[in-house]
């Protein structure tokens, strides 16, 4: 199973939906809430977003693929579920 | 500050800005209420009602572009999605906000 990591915001309802999607499908994931992270971590996250051409959350990495925004159909496709 | 009264004030203020731009509040009342509450919390914390779904970069010029309603700064992208990034606002003819995509400008071929 592809590793799932994500950057999210604690204030963002779409980030909550994204976490809920993976939780409900029993898919383990790691996440960091950007707004609750320290400045060094925030800078690292922004560097990753900028490299991917993203400027919003949720930012989900499934294996080598990046999905920006709440896209459950894409999550399902990439996870093969 | 009373959160409910501030939410009401922001709603009134935002309506006057977004309606001439062709947008309206999402018909998803629960989503709108949640997002407005997050904005009030962000305003208490930062002094500004930033978008709850975009990053505050500690770069004033860029951060000003995510102050709600941030539609004018992302007009092409949001018009293509028919919604703003967080979904607080949708195009005026939208009745089913759940059907709208949340795609990056890059993914929509706009960058």
Question: How far apart are the termini of chain A?
Answer: 11 Å
Gross CATH architecture of chain A: 3-Layer(aba) Sandwich
Tell how many strands the DSSP assignment of chain B holds: 2
Percent range of helical residues of chain B: 40-55%
Tell me the greatest interface: A-B, 23 and 24 residues
Q: How helical, in percent, are the residues of chain A? A: 40-55%
> Spans of chain B with pLDDT under 50 lasting ≥5 residues?
none
What is the CATH domain class of chain B? Alpha Beta
- By CATH, the topology of chain B is Ferredoxin Thioredoxin Reductase
Strand content of chain A: 15-25%
Average pLDDT figure of chain B: 96
User: How are helices and strands ordered from N to C of chain A?
Assistant: EHEHEEH
Give the rounded overall mean pLDDT of chain A. Answer: 96
Work out the helix count of chain A. Answer: 3
The Rg value of chain B, from CA coordinates, equals: 14 Å
